[in-house]
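In response to the reviewer comment on reproducibility (Comment 2.3), we provide here a single inverse folding case reported in full, input and output, so that an independent group could reproduce the run without further information from us. The structure tokens appear first.
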């Protein structure tokens, strides 16, 4: 089977590389010439554990290729995935101009039947717009070439995307014909040998499933953060509360860890888009509006603890930050809480030195020289008035605390991810602040 994947961002590159890994002939296409040339040299535009080796291996074996020409790449393909960006507009709605632009170009160049699959996260009704764009291009050619559309949303966790794709817990595909279902079943057969299902459904339901899944996970996070804030006020320990509710199988123990808010490319954008979709249809998503409100406020919780300790004027104070990406095992800083916290510290006169294992180059694009960057975690601590834990990278979980204390001016830690034990930190001589537990006594 030969397929094309249009877009070499997070979703497109993982999709193309993992399909090639099972023997499918894949061409990944992008209009960014530099990105394509770098990929041919083995230079990836994103950090994702395990992805580089798969890309290099399949490129060398000829199963995976990269091109800037969609016109050439779709020839002879049975399936074309659209995996381009859907950036949020000012009102939070998903901007479909790139998706529909690709659809139009596919319609301009196909010469035989093809299944056009939206892999990008898109609102309900997008597949019909894709169908219309392809049909319009075919009509302009006075062509009657047959084609099909489908929706195949991704459920990849950044930091575990390769494993998620190769061993999915489920694959959701929206189709509207037996022929399309047969082609997509053949394509995904190697990935369901573990017994997990392909869930075929109508196209609008598949499109909605993606948004509903991310909205539910975002809701769990914001709910737990709201509970954490109340725990602090009432003298309860949110870590114990989390364990108490997480053992209930109806709730489960995933996505109930309190922290400083969710970020990344999916949850913020998808929650906004679903709220906007509902608004367009004259329906108010009351729970999701609250989810978004809680999340935005939560990004400032750690800074509020800082000003409670040091006051509003942070002039002359130096803050060490461990972790910049929105979560571990990725360099993604889109909607990252670290950016909000850093900007607040700087606006109040403080200075920041930061360390992240993989996201520092991305941070430099966003923050420039407004902060200093360290080559390692311990070097970041030199003469710091406080350490802020922003991202729960594994290397931060068990540091040499004697060295930490020796490097810092003051033994103060603000832990935005609750990776340390409050009693242990107190016994080690640290002034320790975390989320959902009042440690001031």
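Designed residues, in position order:
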């Amino acid at each position: 089977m030969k397929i094309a994947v249009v877009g070499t961002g997070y979703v497109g590159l993982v999709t193309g590389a993992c399909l090639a890994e099972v023997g499918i002939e894949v061409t990944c296409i992008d209009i960014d010439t530099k990105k394509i040339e770098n990929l041919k040299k083995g230079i990836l535009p994103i950090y994702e554990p395990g992805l580089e080796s798969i890309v290099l291996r399949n490129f060398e074996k000829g199963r995976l290729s990269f091109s800037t020409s969609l016109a050439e790449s779709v020839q002879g393909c049975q399936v074309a995935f659209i995996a381009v960006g859907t950036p949020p507009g000012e009102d939070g709605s998903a901007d479909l101009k790139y998706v529909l632009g690709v659809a139009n170009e596919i319609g301009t160049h196909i010469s035989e039947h093809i299944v056009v699959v939206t892999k990008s996260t898109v609102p309900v009704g997008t597949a019909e717009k894709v169908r219309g764009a392809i049909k319009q291009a075919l009509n302009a050619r006075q062509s009657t070439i047959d084609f099909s559309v489908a929706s195949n949303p991704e459920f990849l966790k950044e930091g575990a995307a390769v494993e998620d794709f190769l061993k999915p817990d489920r694959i959701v595909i929206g189709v509207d014909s037996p022929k399309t279902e047969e082609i997509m079943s053949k394509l995904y057969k190697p990935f369901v040998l573990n017994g997990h299902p392909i869930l075929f459904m109508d196209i609008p339901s598949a499109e909605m499933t993606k948004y509903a899944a991310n909205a539910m996970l975002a809701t769990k996070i914001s709910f737990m953060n709201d509970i954490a804030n109340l725990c602090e006020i009432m003298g309860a320990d949110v870590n114990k509360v989390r364990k108490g509710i997480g053992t209930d199988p109806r709730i489960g123990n995933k996505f109930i860890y309190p922290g400083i808010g969710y970020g990344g490319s999916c949850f913020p954008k998808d929650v906004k888009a679903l709220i906007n979709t509902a608004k367009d249809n004259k329906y108010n998503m009351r729970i999701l509006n609250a989810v978004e409100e809680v999340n935005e406020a939560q990004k400032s919780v750690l800074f509020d603890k800082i000003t409670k300790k040091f006051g509003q004027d942070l002039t002359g104070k130096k803050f060490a930050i461990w972790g910049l990406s929105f979560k571990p095992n990725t360099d993604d800083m889109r909607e990252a809480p670290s950016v909000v916290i850093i900007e607040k510290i700087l606006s109040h006169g403080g200075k920041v030195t930061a360390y992240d294992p993989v996201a520092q180059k991305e941070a430099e694009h966003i923050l420039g020289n407004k902060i200093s960057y360290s080559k390692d975690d311990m070097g970041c601590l030199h003469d710091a008035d406080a350490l802020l834990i922003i991202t729960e990278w594994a290397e931060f979980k068990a540091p040499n605390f004697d060295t930490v204390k020796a490097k810092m001016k003051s033994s103060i830690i603000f832990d935005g991810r609750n990776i340390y034990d409050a009693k242990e930190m107190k016994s080690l001589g640290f002034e320790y602040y975390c989320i959902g537990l009042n440690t001031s006594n």
